[in-house]
Amino acid sequence: MDRVPFQQKILSENERTANALRARFHEHGILCLNMVSSPGSGKTSLLERTLESFAPSERVALLTGDIQTDNDAVRLRRFGFPVKQITTGGTCHLDARMIERGLADWRLEDIELLLIENVGNLVCPSSYDLGEAAKIVVLSVTEGEDKPLKYPAIFFKSELMVLNKMDLLPHVPFVVESAEENARRVHPAMEIVRSSSLTLEGAQEWLRWLDHRRRSARDLRAVSV
Amino acid sequence: MDRVPFQQKILSENERTANALRARFHEHGILCLNMVSSPGSGKTSLLERTLESFAPSERVALLTGDIQTDNDAVRLRRFGFPVKQITTGGTCHLDARMIERGLADWRLEDIELLLIENVGNLVCPSSYDLGEAAKIVVLSVTEGEDKPLKYPAIFFKSELMVLNKMDLLPHVPFVVESAEENARRVHPAMEIVRSSSLTLEGAQEWLRWLDHRRRSARDLRAVSV
Predict the structure, then answer these.
(1) Which run of H or of E encompasses B66?
(2) What's the whole-model pTM score?
(3) Using one digit for the tens of pLDDT, what is the confidence trace for A146-170?
(4) What is the predicted ipTM?
(5) Which residue in A41, A116, A173, B47 could disulfide with A37, CB within 3.0 to 4.6 Å?
(6) What residues in chain B have their Cβ under 8 A from chain A's Cβ atoms?
């Protein structure tokens, strides 16, 4: 019976840290996005294509979470932007304290877009606010159309679903419309981008979504300054 | 700082229940297997093909875990064997108490093989013993070769890796040998079956593995009776 109060305590500590981070992001006009998916849905490849598309002058930084290894940071560092690996050592999600520590030796003035790649897990990351402006859930077409119904929390809390690996569609029994309908049953306002890091399907739409959100973050800051 | 003792307490409660289950399984000559994977790796399809291959007289039962929905139980019930859905309502793994409750109205005398399909999650289920004789990890070729290194606990604790969706191999940048090498770096004695529920590649090998384990469970019981 002591399970619930204990979890509430962790969550409220996390909430406090996340809110402090959110205030700092707002103050610096930083757009922070938290990307969540199953292991192997293609978050890192999507981020590679994204970083590749940015001019070197863009003020983009990236925190990438993993249980073990710094494979993803190695892949993402090739593009010249600041990238830090957060290795959780067994923990199944990133929490706000890890983000706070990850940012400790970075100047927030140098960042306008902070991308966080969460640990590959469709369940636990949904409970941990990282101070982000929005969560993005990545679902690949190899995973089945029913995932939004089976893992509703993360789909409910995400503003955008990237339906990924569209290039594999001819080879898998997956009905795009049905997956999208399931996502919108859980979250009627869900925005959706159909994407492939191989064929670059959806790349423009994804970059437009990012750009729109970045402008909103800047405008929001301008209003409050 | 109170996080560690609390988790230890949960784990040791779980351990006690799991050991009690294991003793009951042993007493009844039941082979219990705990299948773990990412969401959408094809556990349910593999189980469908498995149940399909069994004669109606086989004493097989199945517990299937999910955050929400009873989709999997509906799919698996078609084969006429007892199937029960365990809906965790948000919890990211099955625990031994859920298995105990799931078995409450089943006669253990009627079961010889108990298959447990865990919640789709490569992280948390690795910490929860369900009283099983062995864990099986399912990895699909769409998820990338690096997953055993990134999620080592579940690969370390599993006796068998089913490398699934082999039919998609021509369409994905996945090197089977490298994935297998990674699995064996984490767990040198890992047994591996390359499998596809579409082409039935590996089906015989998987059924032979199951049969071998079932005979061992029976033999073990005969020795101790």
Answers:
(1) strand B60-66
(2) 0.92
(3) 999 999 999 999 999 999 999 999 9
(4) 0.88
(5) A41
(6) 2-3, 6, 10, 38-40, 66-69, 71, 90, 92, 119-124, 140, 142-144, 146-147, 149-153, 165, 167-168, 171-172
